[in-house]
Design goal:
The complex is a heterodimer. Chain A is built from eleven helices and ten strands. Chain A is α/β, with parallel strands linked by helices. In chain A, a hairpin with a 2-residue loop joins strand 4 and strand 5. Chain B folds into two domains: 235 residues, Rossmann fold (3-Layer(aba) Sandwich); 34 residues, no CATH class. Classes of the chains: A alpha/beta, B alpha/beta.
């Protein structure tokens, strides 16, 4: 369980550039949750996730894993980095080894695992991201963009983190590349029952994968609830300036026209079911 | 409208010898002033095709004419590049100067224009993309969308007749995407600049006059966005998305409702659903009203 207690982070405090990037956030992220994190550029998302594994130190407040302050004992901080894995934006820019195998094995080796254990971890991670073992001896720089990104994600998964955090894992990919990565993350989450947190600008993506959503606005946690409950508050999302799924927009407009439809739909399947329900209702309403 | 870009039976392969053709006998004409979106998944050949439009790449077979100029004719290279400018995906890779207006002045300076003309063009270009008030700023402190608009201004300052944009919004957040799309549409409408937009965002393609879908080095569908998105099944089979509104129509049709196919925008979708809920499009023999 990851708990944030009145977490705040101020960049360049005491200077003219002082900026409060994270502003008094308290919340709990339960084990095994698939969480989506959305918000504008500059809303504090990246600053927030860098606190989850101690890359940034809170200006005030605490970050607790299983009730234990991660900053209580600095010597243990590097252990936290193994249990909370962070995948940055465009992680393929961070590949550096000669072969895919060595690149993925870098994390587990640093954890002090034996060669044999490392080998198992590498193969397992490759499977989770859907890459063939035939690629292991290739240079990561020979691969396609989507493959490179999966190697980078595998490098973090290979450490078997309890909490996997990915900052815009699908940015810049085409629809197929995006769907591949999301499908593999979903399967990884289902099989491992570990916590997965994705940062995304794409509401439809979040609607499809996540159980809960955290909406950040100006450094604060504006909303933190189940996907259904968050999308139900489309007025609030729009006020923050976030894009809501096209289909949700359509249903809000239908309701404004006087049709009694549920506006908390965000996938096309839900929309079709809701339209069919409304159709049956009008049909029945007209019977004598 | 006169033809501006004319690609005739273009084939292209990277490297030499036995590598596979990335473009396979592609023929396409784009009219002066047209706004064309080119769609396709990674590896479909869409960027390779676009790079033929200002002679970054030359066809292995066939020919490309830009405003009548054969791109294979090296003596025309400078003129072709001034006629058709290119904007790429990553804004950080396209900015050369540490001051916004100097960056925009880079191309006109290289064209050897007199200082007064450079000033006029830079001011015009920055106003056109809505970045005039940032002319003294440092580009690296701007947002992605702002940087991309500076990159577009740098092209506009050359006074090109055509702009080719290769996934200009792929690395931007929703706000940045909207800013850049607004600028692209404005320049097409008000300045009549021929626009080729490579994208895999369907909502962006829906705003163009015409959408061309590439797959496996060939043109799969070519027509108005409404026409192209009617083929939702086909688009999905080649790894592309369709707008949620279009997909909803398909799901409802699968339930036997006689929904129209060409529904792209939320307004169109609201209209069609309103008619559905008022008793239209119901399956044959069903009126939606159970008789007494």
């Amino acid at each position: 369980m990851l708990t944030l207690e009145r977490l705040s982070h101020i960049y360049s405090p005491g200077t003219p550039f002082e900026h409060k990037a994270v502003d008094d956030i308290s919340l709990t992220i339960e084990d095994g949750l698939f969480l989506g994190l959305i918000g504008h550029t500059g809303s504090g998302k990246s600053t927030l996730i860098k606190h989850f594994n101690g890359l940034l130190k809170p200006t005030s407040g605490r970050v607790l894993i299983d009730g234990e302050d991660i900053w209580a004992d600095k010597r243990r901080l590097h252990k936290i980095r193994f249990s909370v894995g962070l995948v940055f934006q465009y992680p393929e820019h961070q590949l550096f080894e000669e072969t895919v195998y060595k690149d993925i094995a870098f994390g587990p080796r640093n954890m002090g695992l034996s060669a044999e254990e490392c080998d198992g971890r590498v193969r397992e991670a490759l499977r989770f991201v859907g890459l063939s073992e035939e690629l292991m001896e290739k240079s990561p720089f020979e691969l396609s963009g989507g493959q490179k990104r999966r190697v980078a994600i595998a490098g973090v998964i290979a450490m078997r983190p309890r909490i996997l955090v990915l900052d815009e894992p699908t940015a810049g990919l085409d629809p197929k590349g995006r769907d591949d990565i999301l499908a593999h993350l979903k399967a990884y989450h289902a099989e491992n029952r570990s916590t997965v947190i994705i940062v995304s600008h794409d509401m439809e993506e979040i609607a499809r994968c996540c159980q809960k959503v955290l909406v950040m606005a100006r450094g604060k946690a504006a909303l933190y609830d189940t996907v259904e409950n968050v999308f139900r508050q489309s007025d609030k999302l729009k006020a923050i300036g976030l894009d809501i799924p096209q289909i949700t927009e359509v249903f809000i407009k239908l309701r404004a026209r006087g049709f009694s439809v549920d506006t908390s739909v965000f996938t096309t399947e839900q929309a079709a079911a809701e339209i069919l329900r409304a159709l049956r209702e009008t049909g029945e309403g007209r019977t004598c | 409208m006169p033809v501006f870009i004319d690609a005739r039976n273009v084939t292209f392969r990277y490297g030499g010898g036995d590598s596979e053709d990335v473009l396979k006998d592609v023929s396409l004409t784009i009219d002066d002033g047209e706004f064309v979106a080119v769609l396709g998944h990674n590896g479909s050949g869409k960027s390779t095709l676009a790079k033929h439009f200002n002679a970054i790449l030359l066809p292995s077979g066939g020919a490309v004419y830009v405003s009548g100029m054969d791109t294979r004719d090296e003596s025309l290279l400078y003129e072709i590049r001034q006629t058709t400018g290119m904007v790429f995906q990553n804004p950080d890779n396209q900015i050369v100067s540490s001051v916004v207006e100097e960056d925009v002045a880079f191309a006109p300076e290289n064209l050897g224009l007199p200082p007064g003309e450079i000033r006029r063009r830079v001011d015009f270009a920055l106003k056109a993309v809505g970045m005039y008030e940032y002319r003294d700023h440092a580009p690296h402190l701007l947002s992605g969308g702002q940087k991309q608009r500076i990159a577009i201004a740098g092209i506009i300052a050359m006074r090109p007749r055509c702009v080719v944009l290769d996934e200009p919004t792929a690395m931007l957040d929703p706000v940045g995407r909207r800013e850049v799309m607004r600028v692209i549409k404005d320049l097409n409408r008000s300045e009549g600049i021929t626009t080729v937009l490579i994208t895999h965002h369907m909502d962006e393609a829906a705003q163009a006059d015409r959408a061309v879908v590439m797959n496996d080095g060939q043109i799969l569908v070519d027509g108005t966005p409404h026409y192209v998105f009617q083929n939702a099944g086909l688009l999905k089979s080649v790894g592309l998305d369709v707008p949620q509104s279009t997909e909803l129509m398909f799901l409802l049709r699968a339930q036997g409702l006689r929904m129209p196919l060409a529904v792209l925008t939320d307004e169109e979708c609201v209209e069609v659903l309103t008619r559905l809920l008022s008793g239209e499009f119901l399956p044959e023999g069903e009126t939606g009203v159970t008789p007494c």
